[in-house]
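Hi C.,

You asked whether I'd gotten around to modeling the 366-residue construct. I have! Everything is below, sequence then structure, no commentary in between.
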Amino acid sequence: MSMAVVHVGFHKTGTKTLQNFFATHREWLAEKGVCYPPTLSGDLTGHHRLACWFGSRRTTWGPNDLFVAEREIFAEMSAARTQTAEGLQQTLSTSYPLCLLSSEIIGTFDAKELATFRSFVGHIDRIVLYIRNGIKFIYSCWATKVRWGHQGSFDGFLREAINFHPATPLIGPLQFADLLIDTLGLDRLSVRSFDAALKHPRGLIGDFIEEELGLFDTSGHSANQILNASPSSTVTEVLRALNISLGSATIPNFQVSLARLRKVTAGVHGKQLLDDLAQKIAPIMRSATIGDLRPATIGVDGSIEVRTSRSVRLFGDWKFPLDESVFWAETDSLMQILGRFSVFEQLISGNGEFEKSFGPTPSGDR
C-alpha cells in the first residue's frame, strides 16, 4: 500500500510553480517511485477539483476559511462535485510507493472534511505547508481575493489579518496546523519556509523535491521563476474599482471584470494604458506597514505572538517586519480618480470602444 504526501500550500507560497512541475514531470517522478495522479482539472495542474469534492458546502466555521467562498465559486464553475466516489478512488489508486497530492484548497478543510479525505487517501505520511514572510504575503492574499470579486480596501484587510479575525491569512494557517496536529500528530506535519526555499540553489522546486521528498538530480528540471505572481498594485486597484462598479459579488460579474481588464492590458497599447493608470492613481496611493497599526499580535522582531495555538512554535521562521511597506488606495479617492478616466468608463460600459483603442494586436501587425 502506498503512502501519501500532501502539499497544501498555503496560498501565495509558490503552489502553482510546484504543481506545474509535478504535472509536467509525471514520468520523471514515476521513475523515482512517486505517483502524481491526474488532476481532473483541465488545464489546471493542482488537484483542486478533487479537493473541492471532499470540501462540501457548510455553514459552520472551519479553521482556515480565508478562501472558502472562492472554493465554492470554483467548485460550481468546474462541476467538481459531480465526480463519483468510485472515480476518485480509481484516480487515487496507485502501485507506486508514494502518492503525491497538491492543492491549496485542502487547506480550507475542517475536521469533518479532513476525515473524509483521509478515508479515501489512506495512509498520510505527512502534510507539507509553506509559510511566506512579510506584509507582502498578506497583500498577495488580498490581491487574490480582489481577483475573485472582493471590493474592500487593503487597509481594512490588513487590520483584520493582524488582529487574527476569522478567515484571515495569519490565524487561519495556525488553526489549520492545530487541526492537523490533533488529527495526524505532530510528526506528520512539515512546515517549510517559502523565503528560505527561494535561496535553494534550485529554488522552490529544489527545496521541495530534494529537501522534502529526498529525491535528487533536479538540476535539469528545476526553475526559479515563480508562477502566478500577484499583479502590480495599479492593476489590483483598477480591478477592485471594476468589481465595485460592476457589483462583482457574483460569478458572472467578477469574470467580466477580470476578462475586460486582461483584454485591454494584453493589447498593443496595454503598457501605455497601465502607465496612464499608474500615473493617475499615484497621487492617492498610500503606504501601509504593520508597525503603523501597532499590533499586539506581532512582536518587535516580526514574530507572531499568540499563545492559544499549539502549532505556533513550528512557525518560528514566520516573520512580519513592522517597517516593510506596500501601497494601497482609499476607495472613495480611487473611484473619483478613475471616474474621470474615459477608458475606465468604457471598461464599465463594455460598449466595445475600449477594444478598438486597447484590444489585442491585429494579426500581421508586428
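If it helps when you're writing up: The chain has 17 helices and seven strands.

Thanks,
B.
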